[in-house]
Amino acid sequence: MSIVPAFAILAMLAGAPPQATGPTEAGGKAIAISGTDHVETLACDGRAVAITGVDNSVTLTGTCRSLEISGSGNTVMATIAPGGVLSVTGTDQKVRWRSTGEVRRSVTGVDNQVVREK
Predict the structure, then answer these.
(1) pTM here?
(2) Which of 37, 64, 105, 109 sits CB 3.0–4.6 Å from 18 for a disulfide?
(3) What's the rounded Cα separation, in Å, for the pair 64 and 22?
(4) Under a CB-based contact definition with an 8 Å cutoff, are residues 49 and 34 in contact?
C-alpha cells in the first residue's frame, strides 16, 4: 500500500474537469438548461431557450425564437429569429448572437459581453 500526500490528491482534483449539475430539458416548444458546467450543443428548431446557472457553455444551432440567459459566467452562441427576444441578466455572461432582422434586447448586470455577429 502506498501513501499519497494530501497535496498530490488536491493537485489531481484541481486538474479534473468539472461535472455538470442540473437538468437539460428539450421539449417541443422550449429548451431549458439549468445548473452548472454544462457543455451543450443543441438544435433550436424555432424554440424558446432559457439558460440559468453558472459556467455553462452552450451552442445553439438553427434559429431560436427567443433566448433568456441568467446567472454568471455562461458562454452562449445562438441565432435568434427576427422579432425575437434576447434577455441577458447577471454577471460575466458572454453571448455571441446573429439574426437576419431586428431583435428586442435587454442586457442588465455587470461585465456582460453581448455581441452581434455578422
Answers:
(1) 0.83
(2) 37
(3) 22
(4) no
